[in-house]
Design a protein that fits this description.
The structure holds 2 protein chains of 2 kinds. Chain A is an alpha/beta fold. Chain A has 9 helices and 10 strands. Helices cover 79% and strands 0% of the residues of chain B. The chains are: A alpha/beta, B mainly alpha. The complex binds adenosine-5'-triphosphate and magnesium ion. The site of adenosine-5'-triphosphate has 10 residues of chain A, from helix 1.
């Protein structure tokens, strides 16, 4: 289980996260939705210590610590056991698809190269890229790059997977392939997953829990049916009426 | 005869005996200058107080004075300083002259390369660094595995030029009493006063070396830019795609 308690983060005088409480069990999928600037990315980035939290308590698996006073070991633990999938993929430029996937296994987990490559090929197969192992990122389409990035994250066997708008930078025709891969990962139920996405149909279908973030606060939290179907607050109602769920989902 | 063309070529083998010294000085100074330049670049990027001011002062002085002056100052100045610090005179006198040459050349070069290294490191996309952190790589692992290789691609052209400059720059180390290729050539010419032929000989040798080195450097650069190569590798198909790209 990953649990955040009272997470606060400010940039200069601007408080972006105002005490977030959040709990996601292993095997559970949580979707974070909210308007632009509500702090969704900052939330994920704090978990991975790409931003330093100002206040709060993090629990991941058996380890629990004060996020504002995280030791080097705490940060290393969080980074090793969570993996972020970025909006812009951020694949290592001078490494092939396979090398991107094996990098963490070799340098962080210290796996022998041949073992890492074997597992790397398996993972690339899982995201449908067996025939692209030796391609450099710039020779892959956006959708393919994002699938490599997902394989790279999976390679670490993370306790928690963090997705920050994984399809926002993609051409429309590539969105489906990436969403399918994420769905398959979710079906395995072996990670806690936190997904920031504007793909509301996808969120509705995949999430066990939807978190509506508004100006740095969790305004609503519940099953997709609860949050989309019967939002309690006016802010959530407005937000949900603006994002159009397609008619396939009659609420 | 005012100019003996034959002599230009017959002396090449003799002078070439001193090529290894020239190249050793150039390679050693360049490696040393990369280490210094890298440290200076990190100091600048991190903005470490005091060290940053010292680094800025060093860069400014080094860029603002002729290398001949720097070589002389090193050769004469370091022993004076050491003696002032009560170092044993015998020990000071026994320092091989080449040490002064290496110090002066590498410090000079680093003042320039530090800027190229800084720019290259800062040109590495933040996203790459965040991705490395997110998969659990430490700062050091990220530096070694991601930042250095990526910035090398960016910095190689200017560092390569610096190395070529260094090969030619070694011809000035006579100031520190080191005998390398040019100095030896001048000594040789002094015997029969055939200086003009000797300088032509030296010019040819330096030109050939720098030509070869710059070819090797551009091969290396192409190797580093592995992502620009066509996929598939080695087959006839490969050449075909490259051809197709050009058309
Ligand atoms: N490094 C930073 N320095 C200063 N302000 C920042 C920084 N990062 C984010 N912010 C601010 O924090 C707020 C929340 O940003 P964040 O990126 O978390 O929003 P978001 O919900 O992910 O939005 P979007 O949907 O547009 O991605 C914004 O007002 C943003 O300007
Ligand atoms: Mg965002």
């Amino acid at each position: 289980m990953i649990r955040l308690q009272g997470l606060r983060k400010r940039f200069n005088r601007h408080e972006v996260l105002k005490g977030i409480d959040l709990e996601v069990r292993f095997g559970e999928v949580a979707a974070v939705i909210g308007a632009s600037g509500s702090g969704k990315s900052t939330l994920l980035r704090c978990i991975d210590f790409l931003e330093t939290p100002d206040e709060g308590r993090f629990t991941l698996g058996e380890r629990s610590f004060d996020a504002a006073k995280a030791s080097k070991a705490d940060i290393a633990y969080m980074r090793r056991n969570t993996a972020m999938v970025f909006q812009n993929f951020n694949l290592f430029r001078y490494k092939t698809a396979l090398e991107n996937v094996t990098e963490g296994m070799i340098t962080v987990q210290k796996l022998p190269r041949d073992e890492a490559e074997k597992r790397g090929r398996e993972l690339l197969g899982k995201v449908g890229l067996s025939d692209r192992t030796d391609y450099y990122p710039n020779k892959l389409s956006g959708g393919q790059q994002q699938r490599v990035a997902i394989a790279r994250s999976l390679a670490l066997n993370p306790k928690a997977m963090l997705f920050d708008e994984p399809t926002s930078a993609l051409d429309p025709e590539m969105i489906a392939e990436v969403l399918t891969v994420i769905k398959n990962v979710a079906k395995e139920r072996s990670h806690a997953m936190i997904i920031v996405s504007h793909e509301m149909n996808f969120v509705y279908e995949i999430a066990d829990k939807v978190i509506f973030l508004d100006e740095g606060e969790v305004l609503e939290q519940g099953t997709p049916l609860e949050v989309f179907g019967a939002p309690k607050t006016e802010r959530a109602r407005q937000f949900i009426s603006r994002v159009n769920l397609s008619n396939n989902y009659v609420i | 005869m005012i100019f003996d063309p034959l002599l230009v070529f017959t002396r090449i083998p003799k002078v070439l005996k001193y090529l290894p010294i020239t190249m050793e000085i150039a390679v050693a100074s360049t490696l040393l200058s990369l280490v210094i330049g890298f440290l200076v670049a990190l100091i600048k990027i991190r903005g470490i107080p005091v060290l940053r001011q010292i680094a800025a002062f060093y860069v400014s002085v080094t860029r603002g004075t002729p290398i001949l002056v720097q070589l002389y100052a090193t050769y004469v100045g370091i022993p004076i300083i050491l003696r002032a610090l009560h170092a044993d005179t015998g020990v000071v006198n026994s320092i091989p002259p080449v040490v002064f040459a290496l110090i002066a050349l590498s410090l000079n070069d680093a003042a320039y390369s530090s800027e190229a290294i800084r720019a290259a490191i800062q040109a590495v996309d933040r996203g790459q660094i965040e991705a490395a952190h997110s998969i659990g790589m430490t700062t050091w692992q990220t530096l070694r595995r991601i930042i250095v290789p990526e910035s090398l691609v960016i910095a190689l052209p200017s560092l390569g030029n610096a190395f070529i400059g260094m090969i030619k720059g070694t011809s000035l180390v006579f100031v520190t009493a080191v005998v390398e290729m040019s100095t030896y050539g001048r000594q040789l010419a002094g015997r029969d006063f055939r200086y003009l032929e000797m300088y032509v000989t030296l010019a040819i040798i330096y030109w050939v070396i720098t030509f070869v080195v710059s070819k090797l450097l551009s091969l290396w650069e192409r190797k580093l830019k592995c992502d620009e190569r066509a996929v598939g590798g080695g087959s006839g198909n490969d050449t075909l795609t490259r051809f197709a790209e050009k058309v």
